[in-house]
Amino acid sequence: MVITTSSRGLVHSALFVLFVVTVGFWGGHRAVVRVFAAAELEVRPYVMHLSDYTVVDGTPTLTMTEIESRRRDGAIHKVETPAGQQGGPAVFRRVDFPDGRTAMIVDSVRAKSTGYLPRSQVAARNAETTSPPPGCVHAGEVADAETSLLGQPAVRVIMQPGPDAVTRAIVTRLIAFNCIPTETVLQHRAAVSDNWQTTGEVRVTAFEEVDPDAALFTNWSDYEEMKPSDIKRRIAQKAGVSPQQCPKCFEDDASDANYLKRQKPL
Questions:
Q1: Which of 79, 117, 143, 158 has the fewest CB atoms within 10 Å around its CB?
Q2: pTM higher than 0.70 for the full model?
Q3: What is the pLDDT of residues 61-76, one digit of tens each?
């Protein structure tokens, strides 16, 4: 296979996305603020389509589309597709089950990276699902307005570290669906005296209260189990990229350590 500059760029882009995904997936950098005993969940199911944009000088550019699906037991399936990469190597799926089992899935190379989230993290997540805060406003947030989104009652909140902060997020949550976050606006200002400028957006394009396709949660079960670094190498190999052309594509990744730790419940 002849590797052109454009094809190498595609692979490098896919691998960069993998770096971002695995760091977030196996990094474990999440603060747990309360612990809730693991329990069976019963929630309203949904399928939600989202589009992610970067915004420069008021002009939005599509960067990724997402589909998030929730079962009645609280299991969530997500698929992220970078703009222009439908079916390509940079398309990743993630499944989180209410008992803490989790999986990162790469269909293009029929590979999966599975494990268990820490019990404390699972407990906090389940607690937030079953007992969301009043008005969907968490500590440190400010309610901005009651609104509606695609026919669903919603509340818009402002997430800002403090009055002198130069970054903030405005998040819309659906009240009847355990306060799940939907649309998000990211804003920045150079100084406190400046006006806020939007730098990124997540927009909901479709929302339906429906049971998701059951296959999403099982149709990857026969994929080969791999460490994150091995998935990265497999993507490069399938694209015909050699270690000489892209040394970083074949290097071990720090996220492997957390992956190995999470092969059994913590």
A1: 143
A2: yes
A3: 999 999 999 999 999 9
